[in-house]
Amino acid sequence: MSTTVPNPQSIPGTNASAVSRRWRGITSTGFSRVLGVATLVLVVWLVLFGLLFSPPDQTQQSSVRIMYIHVPTAWVAYLAFGVTGLSSAMYLFRRAHSLAWDRVAGASAEIGVMFMALTLITGSLWGRLTWGVYWAWDARLTTTAFLFVTYVGYLAVRRLGGSHQARAKRSAVLGLLAVIEIPLVHFSVELWRSLHQEASVANPSGDVKMDGLMLFSLFVGLIAFSLLYFWLVLHRQRAMYLEDQYDDADLDVALVERRAETKEHSRA
Fold first, then answer.
1. What are the protein's GO molecular function terms (predicted)?
2. What are the boundaries of each domain within the chain?
3. Reported pTM
4. Is the dihedral of CA 67, 73, 74, 75 positive or negative?
């Protein structure tokens, strides 16, 4: 005696294609499109000011133009890891334990790792032009590399097996621990003897010794890369939501098929 196994495609809301049809376009909204256009305009603006309009440095000459990428990427990496830590705390300490906070934390960490990688690359290029070497075991460089590796590990932990809630809980604990490293990296040039220069703009004395157009170009870069970060987080956390929906749909299909198999064996 046999029975027909239900076709998963006929089960409402339990297959990936149904999820895809239902949530098509979810990563793009009117706000995200406006944000994307604004980001693109500011990036073009940064390229023009950074490469053409801003003057060369008296000492570093044109190599100082790397600053317009290096400093904003470092800032965005700090911002991203800070948001990961804050979102992790919101997941752990709020009663609802909403997975939305976990997805924001994960998306922000992924983008932070990307920008931290760009920070290390541009920093090594700048170091080659300034110090004569691509890498020196300097306090700032070493702590930055350690921070990068820590968040790569965080992303690896997120990929471990288990339920969505289990992923969120272990990731949140690690996210709160990892964020402690940010002050260590930032103040490393003051805590230890370092080849890396101290802050030129955000220094405690408030004495900014920088050409006005250079300073303006740097702030354009900070705003442009910040907007780029927020645009990427919006899309990535929405994509992660879809991934969770696909996982849940696959689980529903597996459960339906398993129940059908059990029913078939019981009737045989």
1. heme binding; heme transmembrane transporter activity
2. 32-46+65-200+210-246
3. 0.79
4. positive
